[in-house]
What we know:
Family: Belongs to the peptidase S8 family.
Radius of gyration: 22 Å
Shape: globular
Structural class: alpha/beta
GO molecular function: serine-type endopeptidase activity
Distance between the termini: 26 Å
Keywords: Hydrolase, Protease, Serine protease, Signal
Amino acid sequence: MRTRTTPVAARRTAVLAAVVLAAACLPATAATAAPAPAHEVAAAPAAAGRPVIVRVAGAAALARAEAAVAAAGGTVTGRLGVIGGLAATVPAPAVTALAAVPGVLAVTPDATVRPSAGSWTDTGRNLLADIAATAGLDRRGTADDRLLDGRRLTGAGVGVAIIDSGVAPVQGLAGPGKVIHGPDLSFESQAANLRNLDTYGHGTHLAGIIAGQDPDTVKGARRFDGVAPGAHLISLKVAAADGAVDVSQVIAAVDWVVTHRRDAGLNIRVLNLSFGTDSTQSAVLDPLSFAVESAWRHGIVVVAAVGNEGPSAARVTMPAANPFVIAVGASDPGGTPAARDDTVASFSSRGTLTRHADVLAGGRSVVSLRSPGSYLDSSYPEARISDGATDRFFRGSGTSQAAAVVSGAAALLLQQRPELTPDQVKKLLRDTAAPIRGADPRSGGAGQIDVLAAVRAAAPLLSAQAALPSTGAGRLELSRGSAHVADAATGAVLTGEQDIFGAPWRPSEWTDASRDGRAWSGGTWNGTAWTGSTWTGGGGLQARTWSARTWSARTWSGSTWNARTWSSAVWTGDGWSARTWSARTWSARTWSGRTWSSAQWPGPWQ
């Protein structure tokens, strides 16, 4: 299917049909589908019900919108608490009338998903403690007795940057100094009530896997801890409530991490990228590839998800395609903490003989933290995990989750030996990985990571990688692949060599600055002021947030930015379908699989 970009409402709203920061995860039901299932996103007939997301201003407007949906013969399928709105299905002709209801800010398309093969009845779950045990860790004790080979390794002091949909201040991620908010570069940055919050639900899930940490509990009490519970997270939000974002925003975020990696209290040593694009140019030319390679050469271990398109994937997504970074595929733990029964997850992208997953980590039905009221949380309540005492957990599958496990593992190694280079960390994880029986090199890489073995292994003396370096001289448009954002008011699609502000993309100028770690000057990137230029908040590190800025520049279409207009960034046309949300966007083609739709979101996370 081709990506269409047709305006859906008279009210201007950022409509995204492109890079989706979450598709590296799948719905809970995808695990039982046959390998490389074929999926389709069915386009609704003109008179049939059309899935939409409705954003409103206040409780009264919400009630009016619900009444309007019912009057049009539609159905409200859920309330979206974080963004202030609802999900519904309405006859296509009623969309325009719904958008005109007083208090309705925007009406934007959701996706109708129709799997063409496979079973969607999986209800499995893999506790993070079991995932960690499979990776050579045992985090089942209390806070005082968790030792790794006799050492208390928790990732303490190591900063892990996560470029995603934001991180919610939920239990397990709300401790002092646990999450530091870098600049919010998403369209929602212009809405003060949404800034830095995870309105989509993906970033919080991954943050919990990497470094979640419950307050101290009594010995023997149940608690939640991530792979590196002592590490701190630097969150850079680029995705809005629908998960969409332009590749220029992602590149800007990577450059910010490089520029500010040594800011007081940050010590950014790991960068988690659980997303990807279906770039149509080589890693040698692609600008996103160049950006992550620059981070790697500045001492940051870059961990990227390979995608969720299974054996059918012709290549891994960008930036995992860059040969220097750690490309991560997903394993299926089989419901046990023992590694002997693990297999390569059916959805994990295989790639090519020359570029595929370097290592694997558990990525099926991983239980981590939920972002209450976010899009995924509201849309897939079946994925919530409740033990009778709490319902703060959510399960999800994908190479996104596997990448988060590896990011946490890298933080442990860097706490143990801060002098390790990114090349050494990669070689340690590859050399000590446990091969999975029956897996070929393309699907299984070096095998499943074994952190304990890596901790015990000597630092490799010869670890420098030999590969053609990226020049970054390629086109920004080709880096977008099949995903684009569009202004619903004007129909203008963001294409060509320009960023979201319409600023021209000049590779020769940008590559020099990115390579030197000076692409950001205060709050300015690529010639436009994106954000503030200082840290705000008192109380030291625990209260630090990068200052915000009102976007005064115009968009690529010449429209004016403002919170009312752009706080809801959503997909248009086929945006939630095959090329974007449905099989290819955040997943294999963009974020890591086939996105949160067809192959990934017909039901709850796995």
